[in-house]
Amino acid sequence: PLGRATHIEKFGTVVCCGGGVGCAPLLPIVAAMKEAGNRVITVLAARTKELIILEKQMREYSDEVIIMTDDGSYGNTIEPLVLIDNVEGDIDMINPEDIEKVDLCVTIGPAVMMKFVSLLTRKYDIPTVASLNTIMVDGTGMCGACRITVGGKTRFVCIDGPEFDAHQVDFDEMLMRLSSYKDLESK
Ligand code: FES
User: Which residues are near ligand 1 (CB < 6 Å)?
Assistant: First the structure.
């Protein structure tokens, strides 16, 4: 219920990357970015074709939609590490003048996906915002369950976020904390 609103303005070209149910909170951002006059390229990723959600709605607000599935049942096949290799391999083969400049990337999805999106965009100096999905308990900044490290400082996702500069987020720590209750969750 707390936290801060997404910063929307005309950036230029905005790439919105959603993974799994992260596509749901991404939709209003895609719509608002488009409304603000941006060129919006949306990437929707999921494990299988059946798990791709909101494609029709995303197409309404996006200039381009790229679909990715882990098993290749729809769109392009994706594995984060493979994707980075592919993208970089592809980029090497493209005339640099034909590469579209991206002014901002927004990513919402599994932490591991956001980590690899962030690694890739950092390499190309593309400002990137990640909307984080940590464990939360009270949602008021008191319990510390949603604690993360951003740029070496402690932040609470529930009140300081949920969006942060992805290049400053310690995703490895976040992944470790997300797995704290793994055994209980699987019961
Ligand atoms: Fe408790 Fe954020 S959920 S401090």
Answer: 136-139, 141-146, 156, 158
Residue 81's pLDDT band, with cuts at 50, 70 and 90, is very low
The C-alpha atoms of residue 165 and residue 128 are separated, in whole angstroms, by 6
Chain-centroid distance of CA 106 in Å reads: 5
* pLDDT above 60 for 129: yes
Treating both helix axes as pointing N-terminal to C-terminal, what angle do 171-178 and 111-123 enclose, rounded to 10 degrees? 170
pLDDT, mean of residues 111-118: 94
Sign of the torsion formed by the C-alpha atoms of 28, 111, 42 and 20:
negative
* Atom 4 of ligand 1, residue of closest alpha carbon: 141
Residue that has been written with the tokens 């149910």 in this structure = 21
Task: Please give the structure tokens belonging to residue 149.
Answer: 């490290």
Q: Supply the DSSP symbol for 169.
A: B
Centre of ligand 1 to C-alpha 63, Å, is 37
Residue with tokens 């992944």: 175
pTM for this predicted structure = 0.89
As a residue count, the chain comes to: 187
Q: Is the dihedral of CA 159, 142, 118, 43 positive or negative?
A: negative
